[in-house]
Amino acid sequence: MADLIHPDLLDISVDQELALRTAAVRLAGEFTGIYGPETIERFLHTSYDQFATTHTIPNYLPLLAERFARQRLQALARVEGHHVDGKPVVLFLCTHNAGRSQMALGFFTALAGDRAIAWSGGSEPGVAINPSAITAMAERGINIRGEYPKPWTDEVVRAADVVITMGCGDACPVFPGTRYENWDVDDPADLTPEQVRPIRDDLERRVHQLLDQLTITN
User: Fold this and answer.
1) Helix and strand totals (H; E) in the chain
2) Assigned CATH class of 89-213
3) Where are the domains of the chain?
4) Looking at the chain, which terminus has fewer C-beta neighbours within 10 angstroms, N or C?
5) Which residues does the UniProt record annotate as the domain Phosphotyrosine protein phosphatase I (predicted)?
6) Cross-strand bridge partners of residue 89
7) CA dihedral angle for residue 117, residue 130, residue 127, residue 91, rounded to 10 degrees
8) Of the residues 4, 76, 168, 196, which is catalytic?
């Protein structure tokens, strides 16, 4: 592949560059026949840029960039008609993508299984998942520890059939033809696990209702 050093990645280390090269090869293999190296590298670079200014563990950045680039490329493939499987796509959006949207995503993924696709994002992404949200979800047998706050992008929103918003207000993106639903759910930021439980249970109820509306049995 071509040189992966991006003009904006001024402080990238040799190890990070190698990790990005490896990620580009993996993504190229996954999207063979759909997207070429230039598109994959562009998505990988812009995904890296999203996290480079907020995350303090440099060696983790290429992995985050790869995961986010993969999701964005999957979304773009749906938008452009390269991937049609009939599964509904739900996008959960909140402010920091560290609490409400991640808990909703956890419930939806656990209950829907492989019958639907779910993503999440934030208008002002935080750095890490709310530890109280992680604890509260673990009490339901759902592990969201491996998730990470991320922004939304146009292709991710455009690929969604349903966009659930929670507290992002006017910052939430709006595209014609997409179903939008706002959930009035308290923000679990700075709350204890005990205080998060009612929020968790409210989200669980709402996700069950959404699954019923989408005729996804659980």
Assistant:
1) 7, 4
2) alpha beta
3) 14-79, 89-213
4) N
5) 88-213
6) 117
7) 20
8) 168
Exposure b/e, 135-156, CB count within 10 A at least 16 = b: bbbeeeebebeebbbbbbbebb
The token pair at 80 is 């452009």
Task: Look up 172 and say whether it is catalytic.
Answer: yes
Cα–Cα nearest to 199, from 123, 140, 120: 140
User: Measured between alpha carbons, how far is 67 from 119 in angstroms, rounded to an integer?
Assistant: 12
pLDDT for 173 equals 75
pTM listed for this prediction: 0.90
Q: Which ranges of the chain would DSSP assign to H, the alpha helix?
A: 14-30, 37-52, 61-79, 100-112, 131-138, 154-159, 193-213
Q: At what angle do helices 37-52 and 61-79 cross, to 10 degrees?
A: 130
Whose structure tokens read 């993106």?
173
Question: Cα 12 to the chain's mean position, in Å?
Answer: 24
Catalytic-residue membership of 78: no
What is the architecture of the domain spanning 14-79? Orthogonal Bundle (1.10)
Pick the catalytic residue from 27, 94, 117, 196. Answer: 94
User: Any catalytic annotation for residue 94?
Assistant: yes
Question: Which of the residues 12, 136, 172, 207 is marked catalytic?
Answer: 172
